[in-house]
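In this section we walk through a basic example: taking a raw amino acid sequence and producing a predicted 3D structure, encoded as discrete structure tokens. The instruction is simple. Fold the sequence below.
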Amino acid sequence: MSALARRHAAMSETAQRELLRRGVAGTATILGVRADRFWVQVRVEERTPYETRVRQRVPETDLRLMQPGDVVGCRVDPGDRDRLVLHVPGPGETGRVSIAKILADGRRADATVLNATPVAADYTGRDNPVLRLDLELHAWDEPAPWRVRVVQPVPLSAIELVDLGSRLEVAFFTVDRGESVAVDWAASREE
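The resulting token sequence is shown next.
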């Protein structure tokens, strides 16, 4: 089997278990999903974020929590950054914050669009495009604005809202680089 074929082959369950035990902990933002193939942006402490593709079978219950824009845990092979296992953290573990949870329980802020870059699109027209959005946030209870980068699906009906300088309503848990921020498309359309 060639190196390219091995890279795109699904890892055995034994290899996955071993990597879950010994791999470097990180997070992965899901950019796209096709059957058992995931396109992700990986963040590991003290490393530059990068994008890669992962082929992995996951239970249907976990797959619902691994949709574009969701952040899940991952374990990365220290010797091969493209060899990794995705996982949905259990209750009480950190590493995954769903967009729905942020929108339901998060604090509110106003955001200005600084940049919008497509990162994934379903050209069959069934799914919403996934965009990387650079935003400046302003919250009434925070002393200063801050900048974030989020990767999130954008409903086709809201695509005109991501023009440079546009205002969006967002929810967030804490001032960070975007890990706990989600755009509220419904509220943004009402403005």
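Looking at the output, two observations stand out. The first helix runs from residue 3 to 8. The chain has a mean pLDDT of 83. In the next section we compare this with other chains.
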